[in-house]
Amino acid sequence: MNQNQPAVPTLTLNNGVELPALGYGVFQTPPEETTDAVTEALRVGYRHIDTAAAYGNERGVGDALKRSDLARGEVFLETKVWISDYGYDTTLHAFDKSAGKLGVETIDLLILHQALPSRFDLTIEAYKALEQLLADGKVRAIGVSNFMPEHLDRLLAETSVVPAVNQVEVHPYFRQPDVLAADAEHGILTQAWSPIGGITFYRDGEHTSTLQDPTIVGIGEAHGKSPAQVMLRWHLQQGRSAIPKSVTPHRIAENFDVLDFELSDDELTAIDALDTGVRGGPEPADITLETFGREIPEA
């Protein structure tokens, strides 16, 4: 890590745990590429790695951590429980599987990957297991992913620990202001997956990607930064955690190089105005055990 490089800002979760605002994600990274990619991310300076049981690459993340000369406490590890492992006892065992693959005793942030509204009874039981893991000191913080405001309301009504994080699709073409507002109201940190709109190829017109959007490109040119760097800066300045992903070394480094410039209020507003209201990923309600259930292997 370049000694002259600004430190990554941290965000304090609602239980006092600190999380590096800029994380490195490994969604869709093949298991055989994960160790090298995470090793490179750690070399560049990332200290927050986001994975999931359903990605099939937790072991690669753990191998990269072992390969590095960083102490365990220097890297914030986040992973997710898949819907097939929802239910109290099954979710407790899901922790064992993930911790075993990651090669750690404690997971910094463990979250439920989907709301699973069709079987929310299982979601509640899974979250109660997370609460127990938190009480036992096996995880330092717990949270959720892809939860809409109504899912949060149902969860909060039946459990006792407010999620520390809600990881959802957020980028300039899909801001989810209702989710951002609900998270803020409850003291939940919003964490952005697909933070630069990498899955956003549905927009009508000439520009099919946020990376080619004239507004974002123009702001980047004004700062001598790439469109991706502008979008990551937008997230950070609005108080979100962002999890960019890439396996290309120069992109891994570029996505980290967002700490030496500031967007103006007008620029932030101009990016906000690009929201189309159109989701790029699957509808949370469409994630069911019948369509997306899959066995998560043992450690």
TrEMBL record:
Q: What keyword terms does UniProt attach to this protein?
A: NADP, Oxidoreductase
Q: Where does substrate bind?
A: H113
NADP-dependent oxidoreductase domain residues: 28-275
**Known Pfam families for this protein?**
Aldo_ket_red (PF00248)
The record, for InterPro entries, names: AKR (IPR020471), Aldo/ket_reductase_CS (IPR018170), NAD(P)_OxRdtase_dom_sf (IPR036812), NADP_OxRdtase_dom (IPR023210)
Site entry: Lowers pKa of active site Tyr: K80
What stretches pass through the bilayer? none
Q: Which family does it belong to?
A: Belongs to the aldo/keto reductase family.
What's the protein name?
Oxidoreductase
Q: Which organism is it from?
A: Cellulosimicrobium cellulans
